[in-house]
What we know:
Blueprint: H1 2-5, H2 12-38, H3 41-50, H4 52-61, H5 65-86, H6 91-112, H7 119-124, H8 132-161, H9 163-168, H10 173-195, H11 197-203, H12 206-214, H13 218-243, H14 247-265, H15 271-286
Helix pairs in contact: 2-8, 2-10, 2-12, 2-13, 3-5, 3-6, 3-11, 4-5, 4-6, 5-6, 5-10, 8-10, 10-11, 12-13, 12-14, 13-14
Amino acid sequence: MINSLLTPFQYEYMLKAIWVSALIGGVCGLLSCFVTLKGWSLMGDALSHAVVPGVALAAWLGLPFAAGAFFAGLLAAAGMGFLKARTQLREDAVIGVVFTTFFAAGLFLISVRPSGVSLRTIVFGNILGISAPDVKQVVAISAVTLLVLALQWRDLVLFCFDPNQARSLGLNTHRLHFTLLTLLAATAVASLQTVGACLVVATLVTPGATAYLLSDRFGRMMAIAGGIGVGTGSVGAYISYFLDGSTGGCIVVLQTLIFLAALVFGPKHGMLAGRRQRQLALEGSHS
């Protein structure tokens, strides 16, 4: 029995899948705290889909997928910023228009030349078949993202919580806005190999949302979200071997189960805790 449980660790591709998934999961978990605080869940969804045409063009031109995806993500972010500044449309409408346009353009490019890139790989990920150059790209993107977060996390927290106060304290909010968008785009690119474009938004939102239910302090929230990302990334990749299922699907399902547990049993913001607080308040009003 024990030998069978250790079987995945006998294969190099599984070991690589486990630690790469853990790395990406941790980075996405940390970044998800800022996404949750800023209310940018739809932005993560937009950027994860907007990178598709960049991947298709990179395949046509023989360039690294990460380069094309990153450029497309930044172009989409710039397009959303332009439309928001020049029109009266609500932000959710702007995001919806841009990300659906980019995603549709990507599907069109892939359909025109299907041999250039695998649509299934982009949409669902393929961590078990990740190549050595792709691993290096993931590690590089993760390292840069972690470094920027370590150096700028206090400024980014203030920007996400209250941009007006950040501006009054002399912080360059436009630079912080672009920095956060760049980190989101880069992380979406890195996550394509693990969970695919369709599930990137889950890894960029669910850990932070779960940690938000479990803590009122941002430092602790980041620790919880990062731990959830690392744990679900490694365990999800490990479980996928036995289930013979999608690695990305396993990772996101685990994150969702943890979120549901926090939603119900969270000590302060859980449903049961809220019910107890309402009962105590009702008893206090009667007394």
